[in-house]
Design brief:
The protein has 179 residues and is an alpha+beta fold. The protein contains 8 helices and 4 strands. Strand 2 and strand 3 form a beta hairpin. The radius of gyration is 20 Å and the shape is globular. The N and C termini lie far apart (57 Å).
């Protein structure tokens, strides 16, 4: 097994950028009206190169919840097997096997994601470029440098607390009505 960062370091930059743009094409609405398609493409490629360099050189931070593993599997879509990617906790995978929970990572610090592992099986190796593109996309949910990540984490924690408080109040109200 290798880490995500090790895989990014070994991957061909231009191949990753080409695959990224094929999977997530440019939207001209994202650029000012006076920007040409050529300028938009050139700018995007520069930003993706910078992003890849950032991911390759970030100091890796230890995962807060244990070791994680990315892997690829096939999921049928309209009768055709399509590659899909999952992230699991290694401890859960060892305990539960195929019943291990699949986790999202959009709210995870990129330096932590770079320390996650990539499965060393044939299917994951076959789709490694696609997996790395998927990681690039999801890890940039709050921007290539995760500009708004901390602000959004605080907001998320506040909303979760509000939901729990509301749920507890509703349960208490229901219990009171039943008595």
């Amino acid at each position: 097994m290798q880490t995500v960062q090790a895989a990014f370091r070994q991957a061909d930059t231009e191949k990753l950028i080409d695959a990224y743009l094929a999977e997530y094409p440019l939207g001209m609405d994202d650029f000012a009206d006076e920007v040409t398609i050529g300028e938009a493409k050139a700018f995007t490629r520069i930003k993706l190169r910078e992003y890849l360099e950032r991911l390759r050189t970030l100091p890796v931070k230890a995962a807060t919840e244990g070791e994680h593993l990315f892997y690829a599997y096939h999921r049928p879509k309209e009768g055709i097997a399509e590659p899909t990617f999952a992230l699991v906790l290694l401890t859960e995978l060892r305990q539960k096997g195929i019943r291990a929970a699949d986790y999202a990572f959009e709210f995870t610090d990129q330096s932590e994601i770079m320390g996650y592992y990539i499965a060393d099986n044939r299917l994951t190796k076959h789709y490694l470029t696609e997996l790395l593109v998927y990681i690039m996309y999801e890890a940039s949910f709050f921007g290539f440098e995760q500009e708004d990540l901390q602000e959004n984490l605080v907001d998320l924690k506040t909303r979760v607390k509000e939901a729990k408080d509301w749920s507890a109040a509703k349960q208490a109200e229901t219990k009171h009505d039943l008595d």
